[in-house]
Amino acid sequence: MKAKVTLLPGDGIGPEIVQATRQVFDAVAAKFDHQFEYSEQLIGGIAIDETGNPLPEETLGACLESDAILLGAVGGPKWDDPAATVRPEQGLLRIRKELGAFANIRPVKVFDALAAASPLQPERVKGVDIVFVRELTGGIYFGTPRGREVRDDVRVGFDTMIYGADEVERIVRMAFDLARQRRGKVTSVDKANVLDTSRLWRAVAHEVAAEYPDVEYEDLLVDAMAMYLINRPADFDVVVTGNMFGDILSDEASMITGSLGMLPSASVGGRVGLFEPIHGSAPDIAGSGKANPLATILSGAMMLRLGLELHQEAEVIEHAVDRVLAAGHRTADIGGGAASLNTNAMTELVIAAL
Ligand code: IPM
Ligand code: MG
Description:
By secondary structure, the chain is of the alpha/beta class. The chain has twelve helices and twelve strands. The chain is globular, with a radius of gyration of 20 Å.
């Protein structure tokens, strides 16, 4: 197969982990006789520095013309001034919107070899295998009006949380379809005891649930869910929720596994999918060569499976990562200690295990 892949390294450790994943793609391409044509483009802080725009038109154009997109991370202290009107994160939010990537799929699975790295007791963590389905192009991250102004001599900031029934229906449906391919359970998370947006969400979720009598369904309030993720994480299969709750809960859930540095994600729903690790740009270790490339490599596997329909190739990458971990190899963030591998060494081991 020939495929056009846009690489968006972004900021912080982004360039290092995207480069590592590109090497894995090249090895997969050689092994399976594919041709990946790469186009590297600017996004985030580096794009602001070079063009003044966190998502330059050229980047967007390249993304829309490609078959799949791999992104590293955006943001960092350099662009963190709360008074700034142009921010790296805007580039990420806008590209998701422009791509129509309304669903963010975040698998949270405990790697047996890493269970000991979890801050939770091993018996709680055993068997955890959750997929978060986070609504990604609506809700409070996109609603208008929003802004900051002075009202009656007081500075105020405001945002709008809004969902259309159509937006809720398509994401909840995706969760049910996914549950049918898994353990057959959907948990929808909202704040229906307080928010009207959530009451609409819940009503629509129930309508969709009625069409899937074979799938077990429950609604939970987001505050309770924050608690259950810690004390009974193995009870969940597919968790569907809105943009902000999904942002927060998926970071929380990532800690169950012991490392944010292991978790991939896929942003899908439009013609071209965007694949990215769920961790951030880790500016504290950027440039040191220490970053764990595995979340991005595993995002690359999701890209091959969901973006390019290369199922076997995706599995080969995932198994290679499993084998490397099972053999005891670790980067610093997953408990490597004094024997920690750097980005390159870890990447080479994965490639050798393909
Ligand atoms: C994420 C990140 C982004 C988000 C930020 C960087 C805009 O936290 O992918 O979860 O909130 O979606
Ligand atoms: Mg987040």
